[in-house]
Amino acid sequence: SWENPGPPPPRPPPPRPPPPSSCSASAASSSDEDDDDGLPTVPLSSLRQKGSPPGPLWVSYDGTVYDVTDFLAVHPGGPEFLLRAGGSDVGPHWNLYRQHFNTSVPMEILGGGGGEMFGGRVRAVGRLSDDDAEVLERECEEERKRKNAASAGGGRERVEEEDDDPYAREPERWDGFRVHGSTPMNAETPLDGIAEGDRGYVTPSEKFYVRNHHPVPAVDDPDRFRLTVDLGPLLPSVGSVSYSLDDLSKLPRSEIIATIQCGGNRRGEFD
């Protein structure tokens, strides 16, 4: 008797990019002629000139230069994040926003000389020369260190050279989370952990879902810590206000029972 074999097995997904140890500007070509992949050599000066609208927006990754102009409007994190990498290498930015390494989507977009995703087109336009790649590598390394220190908040500006990972000092978390990404932390609470405690419908703080976009700032010196809040949009006459931990502890406390969910910014397109 005939048996339906069913659908063919799914194709394996493209490989995910490895988390960068430094930057992605690898040496590409030692001549001014076209490289083996048919892409011309692009001078670093040309890459730098195309870093912001209204003209073309170019970025580089792994020695290849990409035109991401059409992708700007549909970038899942918003155009402002992609603009920060305009005219330079995306390595330092991806080292901080490591959501790019939790999925194969970035490599699907960049692979094969570019591609289309979310309705936006990415196109490979050339390769960096050896000399330009080395220059960009040094600049990227300095930029990565600067971003790591800046992302540390008030207490991690003294990051050691051998331990400058911005996620090196993440806090300990409940081991029952369903973790989708650890750097930055993206974890959901299992159903059996959502409602606990005396009231039976309040999720304990340590089990509340985590949806971070950056490293958690480390407070090494509580006396120096300051939280600055920009109240200008609501209270123009007040502007920005800075609070110490002692100031925060003296503020009145209120309790509100609320149901909260993560917005899941374009999550479905990555799952």
TrEMBL record:
Taxonomic source organism: Corethron hystrix
Phylogenetic classification of the source organism: Eukaryota, Sar, Stramenopiles, Ochrophyta, Bacillariophyta
Listed name of the protein: Cytochrome b5 heme-binding domain-containing protein
A GO cellular-component term linked to this record: mitochondrion
Residues of the Cytochrome b5 heme-binding domain: 39-123
Family membership: Belongs to the cytochrome b5 family.
Segments of skewed composition (Pro residues): 1-21
Molecular functions (GO terms): heme binding; metal ion binding; molybdopterin cofactor binding; sulfite oxidase activity
SMART domains: Cyt-b5
Region of interest (Disordered), residue spans: 1-56, 140-195
Keywords for the protein's UniProt record, in alphabetical order: Heme, Iron, Metal-binding
Composition bias, Basic and acidic residues: 166-178
GO biological process: sulfur compound metabolic process
Alphabetized Pfam families for the sequence: Cyt-b5, Oxidored_molyb
